[in-house]
TrEMBL record:
Name of the protein described by the UniProt record: TILB protein
Classification via SUPFAM superfamilies: L domain-like
Keywords tagged on the record: Leucine-rich repeat, Repeat
InterPro entries the record matches: LRR_dom_sf
PANTHER family: GENE 29133-RELATED, LEUCINE RICH REPEAT PROTEIN
The UniProt record lists the keyword Ion transport: no
Taxonomic lineage of the native organism: Eukaryota, Metazoa, Chordata, Craniata, Vertebrata
Length: 223
């Protein structure tokens, strides 16, 4: 037995007619696209195609205007279930339009590489529970102040110095392999002199790297 709402189960909010809700009005929108027509036939859910129609260029442009991602200042795109490549590409299409976003959550999306994305105004970024392996795979975030990378797969601190010239104040790297590196906190703070807090703990005196012992070999003592 099919419910009346069944034909809407795979539609995005932009595809539903007779409403004027815009993307910047939604805090946690669902942006994952529905299955392809071939997959729907395979699932025997072809009845959901009744509400779909051929989209003209004009309608496609109107949809992009309604999404209005360019004016989002705060957005939560976590838990999107991006299981297929076309889902990831559509997700990145949206990220490229977030030119004014200041706070962004992308938790648990199985993301691996956003290095081609630039978020010029982003001050707070949460990408916990993804599959990043390097700081080089993060988006360009020149104004970042608070960055959370907990539960990824970052093995080394290589590339962390790229954030040296940003206003980064707080960094979370809990439950990443790099957390077990010798002198982990000292290495992070030496790479990021402006950093005030690491893994929720403020910078402590012992987090400051000791003087390089090689410096003393070049000195002589005058008695």
């Amino acid at each position: 037995f099919k419910l009346p709402s069944d034909s809407f189960k795979y539609l995005g909010w932009c595809d539903i007619e007779e409403h004027d809700v815009r993307g910047n009005q939604l805090r946690c929108p669902r942006v994952r696209e529905g299955p392809s027509e071939e997959e729907l036939f395979f699932r025997r859910e072809e009845h959901t195609l009744k509400k779909r129609k051929q989209v003209t260029d004009t309608e496609n442009w109107e949809k992009r205007l309604q999404e209005n991602w360019e004016n989002c200042a705060e957005l939560n795109l976590s838990f999107q279930d991006l299981g297929d490549l076309y889902q990831v590409e559509n997700f990145k299409r949206i990220l490229r339009r977030l030119i004014r976003v200041e706070k962004l959550w992308l938790v648990d999306n199985s993301l691996t590489d956003l290095s081609a994305i630039r978020l010029p105004r982003c001050r707070e970024l949460n990408v916990n529970k993804n599959h990043f392996r390097s700081f080089k795979q993060l988006p360009k975030i020149p104004q970042i102040q608070h960055l959370s990378l907990a539960e990824n797969n970052i093995v080394t601190l290589s590339g962390i110095s790229d954030f040296r010239h940003t206003p980064l104040e707080s960094l979370i790297l809990k439950r990443n392999p790099c957390e077990f590196q010798e002198r982990y906190r000292q290495l992070v703070f030496s790479s990021l002199p402006n950093l005030k807090m690491l893994d929720g703990i403020p910078k402590l005196p012992e987090d400051c790297s000791p003087p390089d012992i090689r410096f003393f070999y070049k000195m002589c003592t005058i008695l």
